[in-house]
Predict the 3D structure of the following.
Amino acid sequence: MFHLKEGDAAPDFAAPNEKGEIVRLSDFKGKKLVLYFYPKDDTPGCTAEACSLRDGYSQFVSKGYAILGVSPDSAKKHVKFIEKYNLPFSLLADEDHAVAEAYGVWGPKKFMGRTYDGIHRTTFVIDENGRIERIITKVDTENHAAQLLEA
């Protein structure tokens, strides 16, 4: 894992969304983007985070932000997650974790004494010019929208 810093150029990416469409960072040129990385669809923390962003979605849109979630789940799993929780934003299927690796959020994790590779829950706020404006590594899953909108 390497670490990006605020002010760095956001790494470009190309990954399929839940509809199988390839989404690139360049698609958001001229817009602000909340790019959030989360471990797995339909788990308690990830669901709380997605629902918090869903509930604050209109505020993000009114401030000129698009939202994009990224996890190693398949597009098919993303469709079910989006439908189940009525999520108004796209989720990228990063099954080979290329996007997570480009952003430095894929690496060793520990859970119940076991070490494995996975996504470290992190959110990047990217400005209209493709620069990283903010990085949040201590995500408050229940109140993530407020955590982002307060700044």
Remarks:
- The chain has one domain: 14-19+32-142.
- The CA atoms of residues 56 and 62 lie 10 Å apart.
- The radius of gyration is 14 Å.
- Residues 14-19+32-142 form a domain with the Glutaredoxin fold (CATH 3.40.30.10).
